[in-house]
Amino acid sequence: MSQAKLAGLLFCAESLVSQMETGTRNMTPAMAQQVDCVFETGALFHRLAVAAQARPGHPDYFAGAVEAEQTAASICEYAPTIVPGLLQTEQYAEAVTWATEPCAARTPWPRPCGPDWSERRS
After folding, report:
1. Among 78, 83, 84, 113, fewest CB within 10 Å belongs to which?
2. Residue 113, CB half-sphere, CA atoms under 13 Å: how many?
3. What is the DSSP string of the chain?
4. 3-state SS string for 98-110
5. Is 14 in contact with 4 (CB distance < 8 Å)?
């Protein structure tokens, strides 16, 4: 579903949907209830919105990284031995997980809602 279509169903600006999607603006519990109705997810988004309001901010150990990120001109990652997360295939991520956590459950990863990524690329 496009951001424009979701914004129309929620009676809000498309920019608000974009901000909620990218995490630059938190979803209110009232908005979360509307999202639950649109996507028929029970009360999933509402529970998450309430939990997010109960624990605002970042953990203390992460505060420095948040502050540095806000003033950074660019963010670079150097990872000579592993493929960065956004570039990993499902099989690669599973292999890395099982190599570093040999006792991890060998169950399939949960699939995101909607079409499979392979269908989106074609």
Report:
1. 78
2. 4
3. --HHHHHHHHTS-HHHHHHHHHTSSPPPHHHHHHHHHHHT-TTHHHHHHHHHHHS-S--GGGHHHHHHHHH-S------TTS--GGG--HHHHHHHHHHH-TTS---PPPPPSSS-HHHHH-
4. HHHCCCCCCCCCC
5. yes
For residue 81, which amino acid is it? T
Q: What is the mean pLDDT of residues 100-116?
A: 62
How would residue 56 be classed by pLDDT, with cut points 50, 70 and 90?
low
By the 8 A CB rule, do 44 and 36 touch?
yes
- Rg of the chain over Cα atoms, rounded to whole angstroms, equals 18
